[in-house]
Amino acid sequence: LIVPAHDEEKVIARRLENLLALDYPPERLEIVVASDASSDRTDEIVEELAAREPRVRLRRWPRGGKLPALNKTVAETDSEVVAFTDANTAWAPDALRKLVSNFADDDVTYVCGRLMLQAADGQNREGVYWRYELWLRESESKLGSITGGNGSIYAIRRSDYLEPPFGHDLSFPPLAVKQGRRAVYEPEAAAFEKPTPESADEYRRKVRMLPWSWAFLLTGRPLRGVPPLYAAELISHRHLRYGSGILHLVLLGTNVALVGEGKVYQVALGGQAAWLGLAAAGRLRLRVPGAALAHYYFLVTAATLASLVRYVRSGPSLTWEKAEGTR
Q1: From the DSSP assignment, how many helices (H) and strands (E) are in the chain?
Q2: The pLDDT of residue 272 is above 90
Q3: How far apart are CA 182 and CA 242, in angstroms?
Q4: Nearest CA among 267, 222, 276 for reference residue 248
Q5: Which of 67, 107, 131, 226 is the most buried (most CB within 10 A)?
Q6: Element holding 56 (H helix, E strand)
């Protein structure tokens, strides 16, 4: 079980204690912290715990980013299954058992658990979206395979691990389908995280993360070699989601241009203006029903555009910084 970490001194001890308490045979579990050149006390804390707990090991790497650290750590493992989690996550006691039980099916190569977001400290409405996302994931799994995972709780067969160019969450599920196998969602494998407190914090987090999604869509050929049903799921869940900012701009521009052509365009433009006004009320923290959610939706939709610009200018960044307020 691999925990990538960069400067996680505030949470790493708590994270390891949580993993050591899992209801899983101790002799069959090794926990490796893949430190991406942490500059605080992260490594020291891990080494202190490892001195009294043989299941814990530190592997320190030069600063290169999360994905290279994971790839190099996995290359040193010889276990049948490799699981992954984030340093700021907590797992339910039976989460690992529930997760790996899916590998009883030889067709399953990748399993993603259920991340539950705790109540935000501020006005972030990520939890509303996330519940919808989990419903989509469960539905996709019932149809065959999910289209994406999350870094908080997942596992893969070691024999199926490849060094993905776009990150595990984006790459592993489509790769499984292209190989004629399955990537599934296990809702009973529960993990917990604290979300960013404000919608503005979530906007910055998504601008940092989504360049990887744009790289996946624009250069990864995700639709190549997958069945028609799975291709439709990818288009609906990934392409249209990441393209939502562009689609909203096109819709707004079209309505402005055609507003004099009939009532349907006037009503559509009025609806967009009302929604923007509601988002502005959320920005001003006015107590208007739906305002905080409208503001959240505006920001995360704008993040798809800002992240596209960032991707075109500089590409995705291998290194990562902790999201504000999530520790």
Answers
A1: 12, 8
A2: yes
A3: 24
A4: 276
A5: 67
A6: strand 56-61
Q: What is the sign of the dihedral through the CA atoms of 126, 131, 136 and 142?
A: positive
Burial of 225 (0-12, 13-18, 19+ CB in 10 A): middle
Angle between helices 263-283 and 244-258 (to 10 degrees): 130
Note the maximum CA span of the chain: 75
CB 202 within 8 A of CB 299: yes
* pLDDT tens by residue, 92-117: 999 999 999 999 999 999 999 999 98
What would the pLDDT profile of 194-231 be if each residue is shown by its tens digit? Answer: 877 778 888 998 999 999 999 999 999 999 999 999 99
Q: Please, are residues 148 and 184 in contact by the beta-carbon 8 Å criterion? A: no
What whole-number distance in Å separates Cα of residue 129 and Cα of residue 183? Answer: 22
- CA dist 296 → 59, 299, 300 (Å): 38, 5, 6
Contact predicate 57/50, CB 8 Å: yes
Spatial contact of 12 and 33, defined as CB atoms under 8 Å apart: yes
Question: Crossing angle, helix 126-143 and helix 291-314, to 10 degrees?
Answer: 70
Instruction: Write the CB contacts of 132 (distance below 8 Å, at least 6 apart in sequence).
Output: none
Cα separation, 183 vs 140, whole angstroms: 10
Neighbouring residues of 278: CB distance < 8 A, sequence distance ≥ 6: 288, 290, 291, 294, 295
Burial (0-12, 13-18, 19+ Cβ within 10 Å), 129? middle
pLDDT above 90 coverage of the chain, percent: 85
Go through 249-277 and write b for each residue having 16 or more CB atoms within 10 A of its CB, e for each that does not: eeeeeebeeeeeeeeebeebbeeeeeeee
Count CB atoms within 10 A of the CB of residue 102: 21
Q: How confident is the model at residue 184 (pLDDT cuts 50, 70, 90)?
A: very high
